[in-house]
């Protein structure tokens, strides 16, 4: 059984994700319903995810989704702090605004972000200002689910860049001494610069930033569910996605009311397409957020903002919707030196299988 909510959930109620045989779970479910977190309607955030080890697996991917969301919010925080020169308290107020209405309403990570920005120590100093920029849980062995999530995405051939790129910055952050050494070798760093041109349009920039963060949050769910779907097909867990959505309604780190409401509507239909990029509602949401995401990434690049998950999500949307990729040239290179074969544009798209054609690009 997967458990989410952190150590504080022991008192307030965790999100519980059990998997297994129905008869066995019927025995323990009354107890699990009592201890689980409750949603706004008083319903317990626990349900049977599927058979076998599905509960553990879904919780593992939950953590991969969590990493994508956390990275995006951290990237937005640094843009506000170093790019827009906002104080911690001003950022807290902005996070409160994001959490009250719109696509980021009722989002756990946004809510605690406001708390983190406001918290002061006994000396009256913001606690956040004393925190080192190191995430070491992947390296010290105390957190393995993020690593496993990325391995599974690659193993199952599922593009999940919002999640994977978030993991890479965690790894880079852990080795702070190494980063200092690289900085010396480069003769300095590429510092985040002030967004001077945004001073007169700060409100507009912040709204674009909110929309950009939402795009990463939603893309993280899309990517994570795609990984779960592929694993489900492989293991025949018969995962109940409506149950998974209920598990994620409260008590877990990826609680996001707007997104969860949308997913609940989608998975209420028994024949729902599990590739959420095919869903018109999800596609419209990501399409409408694309301009804001692009604006933030472009401005971020101009001012050396560190935006791995924001930029990776932008690229994900670009290449997922595009039928003219640079891999046309990539495929030709593979055929040139390795005789890996290729398909013709005149043929049907087909499945991801070895092509039928080879060109002798250079006579031996």
Structure commentary:
This protein is an all-alpha fold and 364 residues long. The chain is built from 14 helices and 2 strands. The protein has helices at 9-12, 22-35, 54-83, 88-100, 108-118, 145-155, 161-174, 176-186, 202-235, 241-247, 257-267, 280-302, 308-320, 327-338; strands at 2-4, 15-17. Strands 1-2 form a two-stranded antiparallel sheet. Helix 12 crosses helix 13. The longest helix has 34 residues, at 202-235. The model has no long low-confidence stretch (mean pLDDT 91).
Rg from alpha-carbon coordinates: 22 Å
Backbone structural class? mainly alpha
Q: Please bin the fraction of helical residues.
A: 55-70%
Using the alpha-carbon principal axes, give the shape.
globular
Order of helices and strands: EHEHHHHHHHHHHHHH
Low confidence ranges: none
Beta fraction: under 5%
Strand order of the largest sheet: 1-2
Q: Note the total helix count.
A: 14
- Biggest β-sheet strands, sense, barrel: 2 strands, antiparallel
Measured distance between first and last alpha carbons: 59 Å
Q: On the 0-100 scale, what is the average pLDDT?
A: 91
Count every beta strand, where a strand is a DSSP E run of 2 or more residues: 2
């Amino acid at each position: 059984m997967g458990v989410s909510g952190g150590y504080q959930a022991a008192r307030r109620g965790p999100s519980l994700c059990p998997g297994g045989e129905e008869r066995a779970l019927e025995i323990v479910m009354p107890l699990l319903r009592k201890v689980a977190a409750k949603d706004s309607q008083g319903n317990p955030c626990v349900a049977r995810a599927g058979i076998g080890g599905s509960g553990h697996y879904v919780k593992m991917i939950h953590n991969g989704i969590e990493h994508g969301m956390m990275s995006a919010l951290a990237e937005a925080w640094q843009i506000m702090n170093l790019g827009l020169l906002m104080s911690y308290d001003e950022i807290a107020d902005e996070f409160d605004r994001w959490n009250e209405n719109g696509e980021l309403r009722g989002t756990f990570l946004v809510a605690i972000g406001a708390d983190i920005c406001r918290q002061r120590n006994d000396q009256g100093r913001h606690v956040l200002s004393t925190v080192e920029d190191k995430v070491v849980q992947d390296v010290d062995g105390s957190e393995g689910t993020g690593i496993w999530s990325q391995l599974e995405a690659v193993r199952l051939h599922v593009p999940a860049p919002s999640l994977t790129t978030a993991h890479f910055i965690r790894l880079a952050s852990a080795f702070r001494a190494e980063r200092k050494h690289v900085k010396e070798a480069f003769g300095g760093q590429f510092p985040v610069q002030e967004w001077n041109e945004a001073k007169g349009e700060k409100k507009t920039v912040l709204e674009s930033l909110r929309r950009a963060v939402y795009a990463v949050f939603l893309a993280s769910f899309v990517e994570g569910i795609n990984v779960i779907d592929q694993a489900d097909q492989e293991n025949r867990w018969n995962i109940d996605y409506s149950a998974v959505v209920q598990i994620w309604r409260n008590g877990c780190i990826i609680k996001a009311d707007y997104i969860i409401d949308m997913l609940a509507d989608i998975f209420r239909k028994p024949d729902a397409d599990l590739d959420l990029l095919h869903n018109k509602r999800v596609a419209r949401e990501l399409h409408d957020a694309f301009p804001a995401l692009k604006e933030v990434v472009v401005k971020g690049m101009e001012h050396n903002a560190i935006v791995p998950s924001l930029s990776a999500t932008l690229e994900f949307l670009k290449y997922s919707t595009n039928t003219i990729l640079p891999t046309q040239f990539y495929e030709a290179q593979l055929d040139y030196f390795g005789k890996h074969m290729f398909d013709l544009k005149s043929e049907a798209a087909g499945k991801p299988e070895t092509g039928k054609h080879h060109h002798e690009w250079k006579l031996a």
